[in-house]
Specification:
It contains three helices and no strands. It is mainly α. The protein has one domain. α1 packs across α2, α1 runs parallel beside α3 and α2 crosses α3.
């Protein structure tokens, strides 16, 4: 397993990627209010910071470009992708719950 450690450059790439993915998700699907916007942004940001490394490694492995990217580029890519996808996965889960879930009376 790759050891990314506590390199400040990688953490910066991870943070920038997570913020970019969260911002794109807000622009692509506009929130209904400030509270929803803040919730979506921080959800995307935290998912990008947490899952950025594994997602980046998975993406570059699947594309077959692992040897041509630096660690920061892998981290940026993974953070942006996981941040962007966080809200879409949560949205799908909410729709499934609304469709198949029952509310207590």
């Amino acid at each position: 397993m790759a050891d990314f450690g506590n390199d400040p450059g990688l953490w910066a790439a991870k943070g920038i990627g997570a913020a970019a993915g969260a911002a794109v998700s807000l622009i692509y699907m506009l929130p209904k209010g400030k509270r929803e916007a803040a919730s979506r942004f921080f959800t995307g940001l935290s998912c990008g910071l947490i899952f950025g490394g594994p997602a980046g490694l998975w993406i570059v492995t699947k594309l077959g470009i692992a040897g041509s990217l630096s660690g920061a580029e892998v981290m940026l890519t993974g953070s942006a992708a996981s941040s962007l996808m966080a809200w879409w996965v949560m949205g799908a889960a909410v729709r499934v719950a609304e469709r198949f879930g029952t509310r207590p009376d």
